[in-house]
């Protein structure tokens, strides 16, 4: 750690990066009863902190390494950081990006003067091809996180924070591969071991949390894609070793909590973070639920703001549940005249209806998908109890991903004709022919009984598919899922599926 601390002190990041402000978040401070400060890395020239590590690594290259040009694999902020820094030093830069990368990111990197090479469906494919290019054509590889000079560059964030607020009590840092928290944590813990260093990861991309708990590096089979900036299957060797020394704890947050944090940051700064960029605030709020810290000084790192505009609809939609201001229910009512009116008058009362979906599906009973406004999580069981007191059976779907992603946008009911139906949620790459590839791999004798797709403006689309699979074909169907290699979750036993589909 001593060597890294010295490297942070002598890091050359300001050839490309800027010193960013540490802004007080007035609304978040009032909400939490703490002094909440935001480290505004979204104000970097590339709108993310990654330019620091890239610049420091490039600044320390030898003449021979510079002449060979730099090369990296990235679908986002690291690519822009490398391209921007290489331009400042007058070096040739090549960036390998997956073919699924949105055009806005590709154009951004090209505009910075780098050559963009598209290869593979995901980051892993791009990274493998990047290594092949290094062997075949040469070049100097700039790792996104597992390099001491890159880590030292990111650690200058900790240096800047400490110079302004050495009295801070805790810092909340987004975690992907671990470069940011390793550098920030090293600097702060060296000068003040009492500062609490808290990492924040999405619940579905928690490689560092699992690795620290196991005492060894854990490679995830799959990662979530909403917070794509931290969607890393395996943390680095250097970063894991350092994290074990400087990280006090990891907080995991949900997609809804990330969306709520994006809104909270916007309220204080009028800036819109990308999902990974809002992890610090999401973790800070989650941590305060179990760690009273009245009057303490808490810092959250806003790590990036490269948000696709089309994603905002999804973020706004999920913010209400993330703030615990909306609850979703499936409610069963008798299929007779005025039944819906009675439900609203008797049971819903003064609660505001945020949405309501109903379709005739039988003559005895109907199932309604209903959203209602609540004042906090404590109201959800109370509202369900109120429904029961008036004779209504209800299922709380507030944390049901199938319901939030698909069912609230569908109108339908059980099909009496679907035989042996199984239901799966998929994440399809947002690119031409993704569905065609899916269908070409699928067995010709299997029927699709349900299909729902809705764009969320990200690199991947979310798709719900029902299949009619005969019992004898179950093994062949599982082989199909492995072969198509799209992230999938079976939902056949989901209670929302049983009620609405």
What does this structure look like?
This protein folds into four domains: 2-49 and 147-320, Rossmann fold (3-Layer(aba) Sandwich); 51-141, Rossmann fold, CATH 3.40.50.1100; 324-399, Alpha-Beta Plaits, CATH 3.30.70.260; 409-500, Biosynthetic Threonine Deaminase, Domain 3 (Biosynthetic Threonine Deaminase, domain 3), CATH 3.40.1020.10. The mean pLDDT is 90. The protein has helices spanning 2-9, 26-32, 50-59, 63-67, 77-89, 103-111, 123-137, 148-164, 179-191, 207-214, 237-246, 255-269, 279-288, 312-322, 339-348, 379-389, 401-405, 434-441, 474-484, 495-500; strands at residues 22-24, 35-40, 70-73, 93-97, 115-118, 140-141, 170-174, 196-202, 249-253, 297-302, 326-334, 353-357, 365-373, 393-396, 421-429, 447-454, 460-468, 487-490. Strands 1-2-10-7-8-9 form a six-stranded mixed beta sheet, with helices on both faces. Strands 5-4-3-6 form a four-stranded parallel beta sheet, sandwiched between helices. A four-stranded antiparallel beta sheet has the order 12-13-11-14. α6 (103-111) links the parallel β4 (93-97) and β5. The longest helix is centred in the first third of the chain and has 17 residues, at 148-164. The chain contains 20 helices and 18 strands.
């Amino acid at each position: 750690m001593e060597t890294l601390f010295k490297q942070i002190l002598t890091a050359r990041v300001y050839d490309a990066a800027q010193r960013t402000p540490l802004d007080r978040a007035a609304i978040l401070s009032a909400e939490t009863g703490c002094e909440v400060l935001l480290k505004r890395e979204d104000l970097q020239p590339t709108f993310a902190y990654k330019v620091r590590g890239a610049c420091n690594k490039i600044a320390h290259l030898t003449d021979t390494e510079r002449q060979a040009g730099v090369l990296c694999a990235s679908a986002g902020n690291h690519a822009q950081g490398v391209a921007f820094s290489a331009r400042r030093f007058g070096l040739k830069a090549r960036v390998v990006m997956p073919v699924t990368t949105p055009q806005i990111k590709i154009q951004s990197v090209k505009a910075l003067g780098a050559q963009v090479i598209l290869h593979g469906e995901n980051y892993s494919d791009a990274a493998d091809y990047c290594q092949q290019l290094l062997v075949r054509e040469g070049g100097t590889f700039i790792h996104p996180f597992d390099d001491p000079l890159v880590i030292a560059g990111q650690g200058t964030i900790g240096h800047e924070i400490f110079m302004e607020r050495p009295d801070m009590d805790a810092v909340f840092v987004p975690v992907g591969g671990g470069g940011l928290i390793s550098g920030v944590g090293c600097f702060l813990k060296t000068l003040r071991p009492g500062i609490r260093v808290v990492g924040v990861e999405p619940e579905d991309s928690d490689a560092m949390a699992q690795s620290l708990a196991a005492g060894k590096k854990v490679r995830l089979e799959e990662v979530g894609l909403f917070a794509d900036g931290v969607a890393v299957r395996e943390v680095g060797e250097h970063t894991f070793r350092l994290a074990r020394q400087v990280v006090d704890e990891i907080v995991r947050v949900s997609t809804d909590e990330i969306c709520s944090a994006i809104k909270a940051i916007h309220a204080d700064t009028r800036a819109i973070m990308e999902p990974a960029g809002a992890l610090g605030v999401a973790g800070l709020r989650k941590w305060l639920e179990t760690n009273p810290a009245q009057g303490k000084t808490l810092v959250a790192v806003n790590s990036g703001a490269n948000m696709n505009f089309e994603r905002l609809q999804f973020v706004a939609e999920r913010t209400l549940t993330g703030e615990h201001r909306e609850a979703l229910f499936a409610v069963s009512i008798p299929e007779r005249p005025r039944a819906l009116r009675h439900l609203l008058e008797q049971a819903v009362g003064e609660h505001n209806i945020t949405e309501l979906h109903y379709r005739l599906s039988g003559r005895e009973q109907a199932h309604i998908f209903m959203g209602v406004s609540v004042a906090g999580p404590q109201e959800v069981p109370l509202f369900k109890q109120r429904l029961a007191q008036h004779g209504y059976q209800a299922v709380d779907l507030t944390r049901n991903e199938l319901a939030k992603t698909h069912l609230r946008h569908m109108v339908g009911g059980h099909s009496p004709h679907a035989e042996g139906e199984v239901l799966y949620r998929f994440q399809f790459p947002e690119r031409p022919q993704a569905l065609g590839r899916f269908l070409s791999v699928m067995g010709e004798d299997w029927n699709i009984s349900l299909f729902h797709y809705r764009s969320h403006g990200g690199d991947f689309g979310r798709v719900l598919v029902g299949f009619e699979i005969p019992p004898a074909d179950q093994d062949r169907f599982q082989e199909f899922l492995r072969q198509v290699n799209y992230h999938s979750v079976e939902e056949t036993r989901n209670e929302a599926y049983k009620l609405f589909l």
